[in-house]
Design goal:
Blueprint lengths: L5 H4 L5 H12 L2 H8 L3 H15 L4 E4 L2 E4 L1 H22 L11 E6 L2 H18 L3 E6 L3 H11 L5 H16 L7 H7 L4 H12 L5 H16 L4 H7 L5 H12 L3 H4 L8 H9 L1
Parallel strand pairs: 3-4
Antiparallel strand pairs: 1-2
Helix pairs in contact: 2-3, 2-5, 3-4, 8-10, 8-11, 9-10, 11-15, 12-13
């Protein structure tokens, strides 16, 4: 069994394999971008990065159509198999076994229901689910109804997944506008809940995440030879000076000096690491 090299694999953006598979399916940058729900320039950038990583054109234009190279054809099977296995793992449903589960459930109950239900419920759980804990919040019915949205604010698995998808979208397209209210609605949360769960899932505040994404994308583009002016424009900064000031505050050096002394051959690797 081949050992996974986690250290080197972490420097490779696995989303590029999704872009490669979509391109193999569509043989069109425009249609592949539509399938992935990203903009065409972003898809073109993915293809350019793949070409650099694999040191092969991968897709070439023959007349009016795109054709895969021999290297792309050799990669397509293993890539498709890896994506299918990853999808199966992500969609695998957890089996709930009350006898072994270790979980805590919080219940909002009126005083009357708490007196009627809780003693029998806890006795039953001791027999069939010893690892389950019940934390009940009592009060009258109006108090429970009023506090439910605050005290029972736990996201569903689908909401957690959507928050992570949003974080990935921001990372991949940091130059776009990402209004908080629209993203919160997309995750079916209030703005406050979305910000709290965004930080819980990513380890970073919603406000800080786009700024880091911009800086990582800037490093990637600097490695590819893009000018500071073009980067500032693409990432939505007010001008080159604003971008340079933010970059210097983050890295302690200017964009022009960031790769100074770095061998040319190391730049693509540095950009890839930064995009991780």
């Amino acid at each position: 069994m081949q050992v996974i090299d986690h250290f080197n694999l972490r420097s490779f953006d696995l989303n590029l394999l999704v872009a490669f598979d979509a391109m193999m399916e569509e043989m069109s940058v425009t249609r592949a971008a539509q399938r992935l729900k990203i903009q065409q320039p972003a898809m073109s950038h993915n293809i350019s990065t793949l070409r650099t990583l694999f040191q092969d054109e991968l897709f070439i234009r023959v007349g009016q159509v795109m054709k895969p190279t021999a290297r792309a054809l050799n990669l397509s099977g293993p890539v498709r198999q890896a994506l299918r296995q990853a999808q199966a793992a992500v969609l695998m449903a957890d089996v709930f076994d009350p006898a072994t589960e270790q979980r805590t459930f919080r219940l909002g109950l009126s005083s009357e229901v708490e007196l009627l239900l809780l003693p029998d419920l806890t006795a039953r759980l001791r027999d069939i689910a010893p690892g389950i804990r019940i934390l009940a919040r009592g009060g009258d019915a109006a108090e429970v109804d009023a506090s439910a949205g605050k005290s029972l604010d736990w996201p569903s698995q689908q909401q957690k997944l959507e928050v992570n998808v949003i974080a990935t979208d921001i990372r991949d397209e940091p130059g776009e506008e990402w209004p908080l209210q629209e993203l919160a609605s997309r995750a079916a949360m209030s703005s406050r809940s979305f910000q709290r769960h965004f930080q819980s899932e990513t380890g970073m505040s919603f406000r800080a995440w786009p700024q880091q994404a911009k800086l990582l994308k800037a490093v990637e583009w600097l490695a590819a030879g893009k000018s500071a002016g073009d980067i500032a424009f693409s990432l939505g900064y007010s001008g080159s000076s604003a971008f340079i000031a933010v970059f210097r505050a983050a890295f302690g050096t200017s964009p022009g000096q960031y790769f100074q002394g770095t061998p040319t051959g190391c730049r693509s690797g540095a950009a890839t690491n930064s995009a991780d």
